[in-house]
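User: Design a sequence. Structure:
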């Protein structure tokens, strides 16, 4: 059965897309730790992050770097924290989380966000790409 993220890639489930290319997709997390919390995924469904081949892994991180720069230009923060947990959805992904301090990288702080707010933030971030 396809993962939630594969269903997002196929368009079966909507998302607040930041950007995409042939291999990767970035979209806002619907349960953000902080506003602008973005997920970056390979479109190819691979469960474990470190099972990505070197080319796909390297490309994912270069793609994430571009997205992180756009998020940082739009969302006031000290840094864009990077988290790879891999337990919540069996599809390799990177969390880009705007943070003020190390303690901000904590899934216990995640809360559901309103669709209108996600759409507004996504549009503002896209403007920086």
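Assistant: Done.
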């Amino acid at each position: 059965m396809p993962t939630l993220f594969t269903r997002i890639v196929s368009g079966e489930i909507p998302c607040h897309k930041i950007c995409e290319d042939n291999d990767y997709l970035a979209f806002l997390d619907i349960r953000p730790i902080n506003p602008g919390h973005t997920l970056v995924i390979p479109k190819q469904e691979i469960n474990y992050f470190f099972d990505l081949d070197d080319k796909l892994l390297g490309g994912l991180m270069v793609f994430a770097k571009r997205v992180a720069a756009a998020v940082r230009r739009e969302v006031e923060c000290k840094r864009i924290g990077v988290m790879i947990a891999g337990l919540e959805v069996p599809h390799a992904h990177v969390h880009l989380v705007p943070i003020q301090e190390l303690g901000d990288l904590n899934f216990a702080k995640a809360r559901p966000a309103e669709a209108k707010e996600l759409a507004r933030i996504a549009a503002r971030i896209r403007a920086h790409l």
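Residues 4-126 form a domain with the HIT family, subunit A fold (CATH 3.30.428.10). Strands lie at 17-20, 24-28, 38-42, 79-83, 94-99.
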